[in-house]
Amino acid sequence: MKQLLFIGLLSFFTFQIAFSQGFIYADNSVEHQTKVTEWRKQKDEDYKVKEKTMLTEELMKDFEALKYYDIDYSYRISGTLKRFNDGRTFSINTTGGDVHEYLIYAQVTFKLNGKSLALDVYQGQGAAKSGKKKGALFIPFTDLTSGDATYGGGRYLVLDVPENDILILDFNMAYNPYCLYNPDHSCPIPPRENDLKVRVEAGELMYP
User: Fold this and answer.
1) How many domains, the chain?
2) Which residues are 25's β-sheet partners?
3) Number of CB atoms found within 10 A of residue 108's CB
4) Is 158 a member of any domain?
5) 204 assigned to some structural domain
6) Cis previous bond, 208, omega within 30
7) Within 13 Å and on the Cβ side, how many CA atoms surround 157?
8) Structural domain for 57, as ranges
9) Partners of 90 in the beta sheet?
10) How far is 172 from 201, CA to CA, in rounded Å?
């Protein structure tokens, strides 16, 4: 059943973009606050619609809104990309027992809470072949809030391909894998390479 419901790489990214686009274009903290707030409200409204929601029918009955950390502009971080142009791939396990192969697009290095950190950035092979830029990069990660304030299975960021070597990581847009809301979804499991040894107190919280 889980295999039948697994979205697949191309449609998986389509759902990510529809519900969880990982980047907000904003020139300042006020504009960022407004746009993230609007985005969260729209996502909550989408989750109330049967054709759009990731929730089970049972969760939909009493659903009002997802849970989030307060928006914090300091978690919108500029990172430096080291791109890999050699076609290297990485096999990511899923909660449904499948294994899917992603391109390792780059590694992004950045500082958070006084620590130097790095995350591997993945790209679906279909997106790479098509030259797609919007919502084409995928970062699954865990941090010291995982299993505590946030989902133990980690969270995701979906990002646009940048024109230069600077990648903006907006952890306010970090969202939960859909299998948290419905076990019929099969979700990529963040690799240990993307386990951050800091608390990322931004983005979606554990639900319900």
Assistant:
1) 1
2) none
3) 26
4) yes
5) no
6) yes
7) 29
8) 2-194
9) 102
10) 9
